[in-house]
Amino acid sequence: MHYNWNWNIFWQMSPDGVSTYMETLLVGLKWTLALSALAWIMALVIGTIVGTIRTMPNKWAVRIANGYVELFRNIPLLVQMFLWYYVMPELVPASLGGWLKSLPNASFITAFLALGFFTSSRVAVQVSAGIHALPRGQKLAGTALGLTLPQTYRFVLLPMAFRIIIPALTNEFAAIIKNSSVALTIGLVELTAATYSMREFTFQTFESLTGATVIYIIISSLALLLARYLEKKTAIPGFITSGSASTGGH
User: Transmembrane ranges (predicted)?
Assistant: First the structure.
C-alpha cells in the first residue's frame, strides 16, 4: 500500500476557513480538559460523600450508598451517556425536556453529568476502601477525644484515608481523561471527535491519529508527574498504598 504522508496538514486551513487543523485539535483539547476537570470535581465530591456513607454504622444508609455504587459503576459509560442525552429529557415534564434539548451546550452538560456520576461511583469505592484500611483505633481515638462521628470522619479518618488512596485516585483521574472521548457519541467535539473530523476531511488518517496520540501522551505525562509529586508529599510511612499512578488500574 502506498500512502502519501503530509505532516503539513496540521497547518492547513480547516473547512470552516477560520482555523487550521492544529487549532481545531487544540479547541477539542480545551473541551476535553474542561469536561474532565469539571466531571472530576463532581466525582470527587459525590464519591467522597457516598464512600464515607458506605463505612457508617447505619445499615440502611450503607445499603443506599452501595446501591448507588452498583448502579453507576456497572452500567457502561456509553449507555449512561445515551440515557442522559436521549432518555432523560423524555422522562421529565415536556416543558423541562424541551428546555434541556434546546440548551446550546446540551452535549457538554450531558457528558459532564454522565462522566461525573460514573466516576463518582469508582471514587466512592476507593474512599471506603481507604477508610477501611485504617486501624480501628483511629476511630476510637477520635471518640475518646470527645469528637462526634462527623467530626471524627472530617478531622481524623478522611485526611488519613485520602493520603492512602491518592495513587488510586490519580488512576481514576487519568481514566476520566480517556473516558471523556465517549462524549463524541452525543455530539461533543472534544479531542477525539476533532481528530475524526480532521481525518474525514483530509483523508490523512495516520497524521490525524498521531497528532491526537501525541497530545494525549503529553497530558498523561503531566498528570503522572503531578501524581508522583503528590504521592511523595502525602505518603504515610508504614502504609502500603493500593495502587500507583504509573501502573494504571484499568
Answer: 31-50, 71-88, 108-134, 155-177, 208-227
Q: 220 vs 14, 171, 217, 224, CA distance in Å? A: 27, 10, 5, 6
Q: How far apart are CA 229 and CA 240, in angstroms?
A: 17
CA pair distance 133, 50, nearest whole angstrom: 17
With beta carbons less than 8 A apart as the criterion, state whether 89 and 100 touch.
Answer: yes
Give residue 27's pLDDT: 92
pLDDT tens track for 16-74: 777 888 999 999 999 999 999 999 999 999 999 999 999 998 999 999 999 999 999 99
Spatial distance between the Cα atoms of 47 and 31, rounded to a whole number of angstroms: 23
Contact 25, 207 (CB under 8 A): no
Closest CA to 208 of 22, 14, 43: 22
Q: pLDDT at residue 238 above 90?
A: no
- Kindly write down the DSSP assignment for every residue of 132-161, as one continuous string: HHS-HHHHHHHHHTT--HHHHIIIIIHHHH
141 neighbors 157 (Cβ within 8 angstroms): no
Question: Phi and psi dihedrals of 120, rounded to 5?
Answer: -60, -35
